[in-house]
């Protein structure tokens, strides 16, 4: 399956849900009036776009309708598509020009962190890069094994310690290995659940200090992984992590399994954090760099 069709099929449920509602709503209107904007806003909110973002989109739509003198309700779809593509544009490129660069992957349990790391590793190796993985989710032995399997599959090096080892020490060793072996990028897994949230945030802060100390001039990404199937809960998680961990980007996973892909818009607009990758399946190829135009096409094109 090609690049575009994979995103399109991954977004099928979201597209059918949002565009299905938009289409049947528009059919009931012969002209564009305030009631249309209100109904559209409601559809967007139901589609997990978020209240603030939905209001913002409709405000912009009112403005564009007036400015362009649009009268046909069908034209609303084109405007909606243009507005959302504009909203999503900017900031989605990864900063990984230094050798090595570091990607720290964080997020709650089960969102797809380890899987995303495996997919990213395979992608970077496919681009000719040398990749070292750091198994800094030491909370469960199974997490270390899972990353090990992905490392083998992708052809990446892995640095791992025993279960319950200090995650910051794993990151330290992974960085040392990357420097010694001339790796291009170190990708570190982290635990999504500890005994409590304060512990988790303290641990992430400690890991960040190690990276800062060992690689002060390196390009660094802190990618928060969010599960799109959780809708608004994903937005709430993003808020918490944004405050605590200085995230630079979002990876939104499981877009293939949900009608809640509208959450991309809420995250981008509400939190002002760019989405950098999307996950559209469990396979090694099912991670795509986020492309606003392709994404919007996947969301709106019937
Ligand atoms: P972690 O706890 O955050 O490390 O999450 P895992 O990487 O272990 O993933 C949890 C589950 O989500 C696994 O069964 C993955 O196969 C699945 N998963 C991860 N990303 C995606 C995705 O983009 N689409 C689908 N359908 N499943 C995914
Ligand atoms: Mg994991």
Q: What does it look like?
A:
The chain has helices at 3-10, 12-27, 34-46, 51-68, 75-88, 113-126, 141-154, 167-181, 197-214, 232-245, 263-271, 292-300; strands at residues 101-106, 131-136, 157-159, 185-190, 220-227, 249-253, 275-279, 287-289. Helix 2 packs antiparallel against helix 3, helix 4 crosses helix 11 (263-271) and helix 6 packs parallel to helix 7. The radius of gyration is 21 Å and the shape is elongated. It has 302 residues and is of the alpha/beta class. The longest helix is centred in the N-terminal third of the chain and has 18 residues, at 51-68. Strand 6 (249-253), helix 11 and strand 7 (275-279) form a beta-alpha-beta unit. The chain has twelve helices and eight strands. An eight-stranded mixed beta sheet has the order 3-2-4-1-5-6-7-8, with helices on both faces. The protein binds guanosine-5'-diphosphate (GDP) and magnesium ion (MG). Residues 113-114, 137, 143, 189 line the site of magnesium ion (MG).
Order of helices and strands: HHHHHEHEHEHEHEHEHEEH
Terminal CA distance reads 18 Å
The kinds of small molecule bound in this structure are:
guanosine-5'-diphosphate, magnesium ion
The proportion of residues forming helix, as a percent range, comes to 40-55%
* Net shape: elongated
Number of separate strands: 8
Unreliable segments (pLDDT under 50, ≥5 consecutive)? none
Radius of gyration: 21 Å
From the helix content, strand content and strand pairing, which structural class follows? Answer: alpha/beta
Number of helices: 12
How much is the average pLDDT? 93
Largest sheet properties: 8 strands, mixed
Share of β-strand residues: 5-15%
Instruction: Report strand order across the widest sheet.
Output: 3-2-4-1-5-6-7-8
